[in-house]
Amino acid sequence: MEYFLELFLGGLTRGSIYALIALGYTMVYGIIELINFAHGEIYMIGAFTALIVASVLTLFGLNQIAILVLASITAVIYSAAYGFTVEKIAYKPLRHAQRLSPLISAIGMSIFLQNYVLLAQTSDFLPFPSLIPDFEFWEAYSHIIGSAELVILITTTIVMILLTFLIKFTKIGKAMRATAQDRNMAMLVGVNVNQVISMTFIIGSALAAVGGVLIASHIGMINFYIGFIAGIKAFTAAVLGGIGSIPGAVLGSLVLGLTESFATGYVSSDYEDVFAFALLVLILIFRPAGILGRSTTQKV
């Protein structure tokens, strides 16, 4: 039972990280129906930014928690700026083009950001400092779930609550929902659609940066390619839950994380991706819109 609980909590932790990245995919798709394949690279840039900031702050002798907070804030701001810039350069000029054009642009931007970080940093794995401290009060339960996993779960829960509040009760959240429902009608009633789209990219990029900092601190190493792997998994989670649905992105991420965790624990770590993508195939066969997605019909 203890082993099962360990795998379950580990799966929730993994799914929480996927959720932070998947939300960026599903928010952008819900607003402009675009798959932002460069989103995984924003996650990677957030992790590298935190590494650089943490390395500098360590020289000043700051404590672990202060370094974690300052590095996370810097990574969030820097990644949000990247997300805003990517939208303006790669997607806004193609907003009224054929749907294949922005998709190709997204793939190109993903490759560009990968190689940009490769040239600016290195192709090798770099050690990432353990910024999340070990809490003394949690030592009795550390054999089931460590302090790092606990911080990831709590942080993700708080972020989800704040995001839900933002979308349901704030002016920009209502504008996002209006734009997602009918962009043209939103423009007619005075919604600044360009501002809404930019804000969506900023929020999604900030969430990805939080995930990048947390998982890099937990794993202890990063390289320029981590964004591609995490991006593919998060995109899978978003499709699994229902692309365009925020609750679906969270649910799909948790299902994917638990599937990988139990596959690793009871079968083999070599098969975690097999089980994850097999689950995706089954969902797409029997429910193409995803778990919480809505099937739509097009009139011809």
- What's the count of strands? 2
Low-confidence stretches: none
Number of domains: 1
* Helix-residue proportion: over 70%
Strand content: under 5%
Helix/strand structural class: mainly alpha
Taken from the alpha-carbon principal axes, the silhouette is: globular
Order of helices and strands: HHHHEHHHHEHHH
The chain-level mean pLDDT equals 87
**End-to-end Cα distance:** 55 Å
Number of helices: 11
Major sheet description:
2 strands, antiparallel
Strand order of the largest sheet: 1-2
State Rg.
Answer: 19 Å
Kindly list the characteristics that best describe this protein.
single chain, two-stranded antiparallel sheet, mainly alpha, globular
Question: How would you describe the overall organization of this protein?
Answer:
The protein is mostly helical and 300 residues long. The chain has one domain. 73% of the residues lie in helices and 1% in strands. It is built from eleven helices and two strands; from the N terminus they run ααααβααααβααα. It has helices at residues 2-32, 39-59, 64-91, 100-120, 147-169, 171-181, 183-188, 193-219, 226-241, 246-266, 272-286; strands spanning 126-127, 221-222. It has a two-stranded antiparallel ribbon. Helix 9 (226-241) packs across helix 10. It starts with a helix and ends in a 14-residue tail after the last helix.
